[in-house]
Amino acid sequence: MDIGRFHRLFKIGPRMSFRPAVPILIVCLALLPPVLGNYWSHVLAHVGIYVILGIGLNITVGFAGLLDLGYVAFFAIGAYSYGLMASPQFDLHAPFWLMLPVGAACAAAAGVLLGIPVLRMRGDYIAIVTLGFGQIVRILLNNLDGLTRGPKGLLRIDPPSIGAFQFSSPVHYYYLILAGCLAAALVADRLNHSRVGRAWVAMREDQDAAAMMGVDVIRYKLLAFAIGASFAGVGGVIFAARQGSIFPDDFSLMVSINVLCLIIIGGIGSIRGVVLGAVILIGIPEVLRGLAAYRMLVFGGLLVLMMVFRPMGLIPATRGKPLMRKRW
Amino acid sequence: MTPDVQILLDQMINGITIGGIYALIAMGYTLVYGILFMINFAHGEIFMFGSFTGFFILSGLAGSSFPDHHPIACIALAVGGAVMVSSILGVLLERTAYRPLRRAPRLAALISAIGASIFLQNVMMLMVKARMQVYPDVFPDGILELGSVTVSYFQVFIILGSLVMMTCLVLFIRKTRTGKAMRAVAEDRDAAALMGIDVNRVIVRTFALGSCLAAVAGVMVGMYYTQIDHMMGFVPGIKAFTAAVLGGIGNVAGAMLGGYVLGLAEAYSVFFLPAEYKDVIAFGILVLILVLRPRGLLGEVVSERA
Questions:
Q1: Is this prediction's ipTM beyond 0.85?
Q2: How many domains does chain A have?
Q3: Cα–Cα 20 to 30 A to B111, which of A248, A262, A281, B11?
Q4: pLDDT score of B84 more than 90
């Protein structure tokens, strides 16, 4: 992608209509923490990390139509790249703001590596192979004791700082993650309305027709995989910084499934849907701790019911024919 | 005989034992895929339910003196109960989670299957709590010596049992009316319907059949590894799916071959990889086979998909 095209990506074009609800919501969210206090800021920040992951997976699944069940692997790669470079493990203390793009780049590189063999496969094989990839990454994290300390995890990871100011309280992280979500949403929205996004939609509609019109299908799918992965990388770096310690079990298959569920419940391909899905799926169970045992039971059932009765999600994407309406 | 050869032979027995179990589970994947072209993601959970049904029956009997006198009858009861529960579950699954989506995109059916799988795991977790259960040991101990190789009776039971089951399945598909109908539906669902075949009934029977074999495998795994929990279906499910793909999905003989190849590959992997990486073998094979030969070892059976 040349620089000019990249520049155009972020220009507010005539097609981007002004919606007053969005800035109002942002201002409200920014004013919330003093009202909510630490606990609620913590819960909302947790939701926010899933929003970033959801927006990223939405690009892979929703925009490019590739069902990735190993998405957690990219999250883990982001988290461990920061954890290894900014903790007493190797006594390295790389700054957070440097590791943010580095973590994203590592995850994107992993995405390309996984994408190259996977893209030639049939849709449902992609799901199983990516699932296997996620498991392999977790097994490696668990067993490469020299590098990752295995199940003992990486501890005392450096918190981010700006100049002399160090992030410490949940409210600080709330703002960090809110900024991350906004950036992710903006990038995804601009991508969706760019040449790249149009190519993705075209591919999703009809791969053969898109190829006939000159869309390089393999390249654009690879791009979707890599960009989706880089969002998870960013999410992982933020997650590692916020937690202060990470363990292989933080990156189980359930994370992939949760992220997938939230974009399906919200509506594949729509950013507002991702936010709603994250609030419903991640936020509400945090509130209703007592029901934690039934949480996954309900989600499992809900997934089936959603597919049977409302396969487009609660807030379906408005543009193009959504993924769930076509067979591949 | 040198110790090296001895270990090779021992590992071969282990590989064939576990390979037979993979092959049994793989039958369910390959049958359903052959007819509906969908991955029954919840098949591992059907296997898990079969294993737990056997566990409940055997634990219920464990208090009495019955198992000591009639171990074979006990096992038959456990297997019978497991087969019944699993096949009913398989049919219910098809009715609720898959049938409404039969004409829907494949992604929707796959997600529905994942949902069903999570649901079933959690039903079992709420029933037995999230901890390991110890499978009652009812099988008579004993060792068969074939030259220098020793095989436990239980391994003989698994090896022969899985072979017999799979042979029956192949005969069923080749010889019976229902089997013929299954092949017809696999080849062309609409044409089969026009010829007067009740497609829904055939699909239901296919699910029931695959679930039966998974249930037997479930009881075998429970007794072989002696510990089970509600997540036990996941890894064997993935491995059996790998076996099905390895042999050529939709192809019954291929799934059998794939199961044994995978079992042996895992058993022999201990020579050059630490045991923790055993699960990586299956995933590695899966990725390699899909990249290099996506049609599997024996090829997908297109015209005679059974």
A1: no
A2: 1
A3: A248
A4: yes
